[in-house]
Design a protein that fits this description.
By secondary structure, this protein is α+β, with helices and mostly antiparallel strands. It is built from 5 helices and 13 strands.
């Protein structure tokens, strides 16, 4: 697997002053991990975005701070601006190669389901990622899910149907559904839905409040 590298510099600017960094196309970041000293750093925006595109959040990155010896990190969290989607802050988790870690790995859906292509089925994806546990060297960017076996309505792929990569265990329930093929809605069913009267909003609100009150009463009785 190709080595992904990233460079950073020690950051002295903190708090509200980090706005000055962003104006210079620098991203404030923090490096932390189990048994290691937390470090505040700054990263070139363009370099980070290229690294993120290449590594995602489940590929090990060789991070060098101030030109020093590189350490293995994962992109733990990326905070973005609500509207512009620009990166505001990054958390990098330093890992130890001898300690297992937990991460979310993306599913890569491969091929086309025959049930969709041949009989007009509707494919519904229930999971786009799966939580896993493994040593850092066994991390992968994504896990392939082959859709070729989905040939009829009701066919599905569950976690137990997917083989974990070497050295990795899935933390999701084995019976959890990843993808399922549903029947398309017929014209008759569509007309029925359109003709169905809309429930009175006030009635729905009252019923919801009543159910909430009943649940709270039941909880108090149990206490």
């Amino acid at each position: 697997m190709e080595t992904v590298k990233l460079t950073a510099k020690t950051r002295s600017v903190k708090g509200k002053q980090v706005k000055t960094l962003r104006a210079k196309d620098l991203i404030p970041a923090a490096v932390y991990g189990h048994g290691v000293k937390n470090i505040d750093v700054e990263i070139d925006r363009r370099e980070f975005e290229k690294t993120l595109d290449k590594a995602g959040e489940s590929t090990l990155i060789d991070l060098s701070v101030d030109g020093g010896e590189s350490v293995k990190v994962l992109i733990q969290e990326v905070q973005r601006e609500p509207l512009k989607s620009g990166v505001l802050h990054v958390d990098l988790r330093q890992v130890k190669m001898t300690e297992k870690l937990e991460a979310d790995i993306e599913f890569n859906f491969v091929g086309e389901a025959p049930a969709v292509k041949e009989i007009g089925g509707i494919m519904v994806r229930s999971m786009d990622t799966v939580p896993v546990r493994c040593l850092p060297q066994y991390l992968v960017p994504s896990i392939d899910v082959d859709l070729a076996g989905l040939k009829a309505f009701g066919d599905m792929i569950k976690i137990k149907d997917i083989k974990p990569p070497e050295g990795m265990e899935f933390l999701a329930e084995p019976e959890a559904v990843v993808v399922v093929i549903n029947e398309p809605i017929s014209e008759e069913e569509l007309k029925e839905l359109e003709a169905k009267p809309v429930e009175d909003v006030g009635t729905v609100k009252v019923e919801a409040e009543e159910k909430k009150a009943e649940a709270e009463t039941a909880e108090k009785k149990e206490e």
